[in-house]
Amino acid sequence: MIRYEIEKKLISGELATRDIPACWNEQYQKYLGVQVPGDQAGCLQDVHWSHGSFGYFPTYSLGSFYAAQFYHKAQQEIQDPAAEMELGKTDGLLQWLRQRVHVYGRTYTSEELCEKATGEPLNVQYFLDYLLDKYRKIYQF
């Protein structure tokens, strides 16, 4: 969230490059109560910015949302992909992805591809279900 907010300010011209460290430190204190010890542990830790990848960080979340939905659909169409992957066998899931996703390249937008592959628009509930299941197993609740 902090990276995203700083990027928006940089792109809009509201924040000058020289002011990034101070803004970063203020946001970490404000949102997280964290005192940043220095720029290396602060704004310079973002490897995306050093090569010009602005606006990239939120795509990690979007990718996770799509992946959870694709996997949910694949589980309905492939016999026990989790058990197969535990044995190191990824052929079933890879074949499903090739037939439902990879074959289209950049023909469709992400939203169109999601609907084509899964039969519905992006639905974050699949990711939330994945997280709840994961943390229930870890923390046994």
Show unreliable segments.
none
Our count of helices gives 8
What does the largest sheet look like? none
What is the helix content?
55-70%
Radius of gyration, whole Å: 20 Å
Q: Could you please describe the fold and organization of this structure?
A:
- There is one protein chain.
- This protein has 141 residues and is mainly α.
- It folds into 2 domains: 2-56, no CATH class; 59-139, no CATH class.
- Helices cover 62% and strands 0% of the residues.
- It is built from 8 helices and no strands.
- Helix 4 (58-77) crosses helix 8.
- The longest helix has 20 residues, at 58-77.
- The two termini are 28 Å apart.
- The model has no long low-confidence stretch (mean pLDDT 93).
